[in-house]
Amino acid sequence: MGKRWFLSNGHIFLYDCTLRDGAQTQGVDFTVADKVALARELDSLGVDYVEGGWPGANLTDDAFFHHTDSSLALTRARLVAFGMTRRSCHSAGEDPGLALLLCSGAKVVTIVGKTWDFQVKVALGVDLNENLRMIHESISHAGAFVDEVMFDAEHFFDGFRANPDYAVACLRTAYGAGARWVVLCDTNGGSLPFDIEAIVSQAVMHVPGSHLGIHCHNDTDNAVANSLAAIRAGVCQVQGTLNGLGERCGNANLTSIIPNLILKMGYQTSVSTTNLARLVYVSRALDERLNQAPRRNAPYVGEAAFAHKGGLHASAVEKDPRCYEHIMPEQVGNRRQILVSNQAGRASVLARFRRIGLTFDHNDVRVGQLIEEVKRREYQGYTYDGADASFELLARRALEEVQDFFHIQFFRVIDECRTTENNGIETITEATIKAVIGGIVVMTVAEGNGPVHALDSALRKALAPLYPQIDDLKLVDYKVRILTPEAATAAVTRVIIESGDSYGNRWNTVGVSTNVIEASYNALNDSLTYKLLCNPATRSSRTAGRYGVKSTP
Question: What is the per-residue pLDDT across 274-283, written as a single tens digit (0 to 9) for each?
């Protein structure tokens, strides 16, 4: 494959470094399978470059690049390997780090080098001219083996403020040695947008903007703004990570940068409008890989990004979404939510009804009664803006539209602590349930890892013979909040359970009580009832589509 040289013509190139820079996040440890899966998602989204890792840095990155030919088939993006300039004690041809980089199989490599004189003297311990030789020789040598070489100008903005002539000399050296892209890095993340724009405006006088990129860290919470400022000043490549992943405070967040470029600034990227609608899916695919809950209030992709709680807002959005929404949520694969809470008015409730397929006359007295019931319950500690399934059941019960799938006559949970042979303590939890299911009285007993697990197991054991579809239900998250801390151990507790199934659906239910087991039971009861009510195999067309938006591949 020959070298590919581009002119921008209004096109901004997208470079994702989630798999390397994002992997430096505290608590993040990608497997090879994670890297392969995420690289494919980024490729399908439409980014131009996917940085896979640093060959030689760790066994995972080595294995990833070793298996890329057989397990990774990118159709749009170019795979990038990351490394550093030669060391001062080696020539470029004999440097072991460069050798590993160039043997990785990647046709694009990014080489990082110092551009701040302070870092050159203190971190590298070499003189300034030797650092320029290291940059030139490394890039020139690599260019003979790969299609594209990029230079990561580490600490460029700090370096420019300290010694602008030397920082610019590093850029000119890299570009003169054949670097396709010279990437300006705010490595410490301490710059502000006006700093970035002013300094980039100087940099483009020495290296054409069509060959400049920007890489910002988020230590002042300005990484996205700094990246956009650099693009306004002339750079044509932007780097970042999905969901802003990265060490310390993270990197520039591509899930915000991409829609800002396309929808707000009118730039062209390789992400089509069709693929932009997959942004939420790709963002949450990363969270699934990391086994973490998505950030609810994340711009564009968060569950609350287009959620309206206040009655005034909901009423206006019903008339025209532009009243309180800056884009249509569907453009990025999100959805609008009209939340029901103690701040809700009639418009909020009616809008929520329409979304779940309920029909109420605007003047129906039951609407007012339901609003008052929601407010009364929220005063007691319930919350329905975070428990959509429990609200739907509350509304449908008001219309007598919920089948009595089961009726619990009583339940009992017992914890027994036993002394083991090694003089340790072993706790056994047992739950007993007596229920009427399909007109038959059923009693079941189950053990579990704690009271909630035991109770869940006993409920499932009782229901499964008649309702086998509950085998598909899984508990995704379990949250407990103390609502009256002044009452100490007698406090009122609120339990929110997030449930899911193999269809990709998610729903939340809530329970409140001074007894945490009773609160958990109430939330579990709603979750099971909602699953049975909305089971895709049995639900009617009247109730279809009430789940939250399913992630689409």
Answer: 999 999 999 9
Residue 418 amino acid letter: R
pLDDT in tens, 308-348: 765 566 667 777 888 889 999 999 999 887 665 545 556 66
243: Cα within 13 Å, side-chain hemisphere: 25
CATH code at position 56: 3.20.20.70
- Single out the residue of 261, 192, 263, 190 nearest to residue 232, CA to CA: 261
* Count of beta carbons in the 10 Å neighbourhood of residue 152: 26
The last residue of one of the domains, among 346, 380, 414, is: 380
Question: DSSP letters along 329-376, please?
Answer: GGGGT---EE--STT--HHHHHHHHHHHT----TT-HHHHHHHHHHHH
- Comparing CA positions, the residue from 224, 285, 278 lying closest to residue 30 is 285
- Which of the listed residues 365, 380, 395 is the one where a domain comes to its end? 380
For residue 34, the surrounding DSSP H or E stretch is helix 32-45
Closest CA to 148 of 184, 105, 113, 110: 110
Q: In sequence order, which residues have a C-beta less than 8 Å from that of residue 292 and are 6 or more positions away?
A: none
Instruction: Specify whether 277 is located in the same domain as 317.
Output: no
My answer on whether 240 and 328 are in the same domain is no
Question: Residue 431 corresponds to which tokens in the numbers above?
Answer: 């739950």
**SS3 state of residue 275:** helix
Could you read off the pLDDT of 401-425 as tens digits, one per residue? 778 899 999 999 998 887 877 888 8
- What tokens were used for 260? 């800002």
Structural domain tally of the chain? 2
- Distances from the Cα of 285 to the Cαs of 65, 238, 242, in angstroms? 22, 22, 10
Q: What's the predicted TM-score (pTM) here?
A: 0.72
Q: Are residues 114 and 197 in the same domain?
A: yes
Helix (H, G, I), strand (E, B) or coil at 154: strand
What residues make up the domain containing 322? 307-380
If you ran DSSP here, which 8-state letter would residue 272 be given? -
